[in-house]
Amino acid sequence: MNYWNTITELDHDYMVRELVSYLDGNGFVGIQADIVGYNHPELIYWQNTGNGHIPDVVAQKNRMTYLFEVETVSTLTSEHSKSQRLLFTANAKEHGKFFVLVVQASAKTDAELLLQQEGLPATVWTVG
Asked: What does R_g of the chain's alpha carbons equal in angstroms?
């Protein structure tokens, strides 16, 4: 199933590339990204069901692994996005990682409120 229309997908891929560029210039290593031209992150899955998602970007800095999920304004509140946030937050907590939700600057407040409502301890970064 395709969750994004073509324009949203282009916005998403642009945001992922901007994030990767930022990480690369700020001391992150081992960068993997779920876009063409990069090694892809591994599937993270629920052990009890085997269902899972691939994070948009995974990188390391100062011996800490970061999971990044990029959402556009139009995908932020989707059930698919919520499923990703729940899984990546649980994985980060269980394995000592750090989960970061990355959104467009115009959606930062909405993203922070959404995480608060869902009770998810994640940080929100902006791109664009």
From this structure: 14
Which H or E element spans position 59? strand 57-61
Q: Is 20 helix (H, G, I), strand (E, B) or coil?
A: helix
User: Would you give per-residue pLDDT tens digits along the chain (128 residues)?
Assistant: 454 455 567 788 999 999 999 999 999 999 999 999 999 999 999 988 888 999 999 999 999 999 999 999 889 999 999 999 999 999 999 999 999 999 999 999 999 999 999 999 889 999 97
Instruction: Record the pTM.
Output: 0.91
Residue 114 CA neighbour count, 13 Å, CB half: 21
Instruction: Give how many domains the chain has, as a whole number.
Output: 1
Q: Give the helix/strand (H/E) hosting 32.
A: strand 29-33
Tokens 């937050």: give the residue.
Answer: 89
CATH number at residue 106: 3.40.1350.10
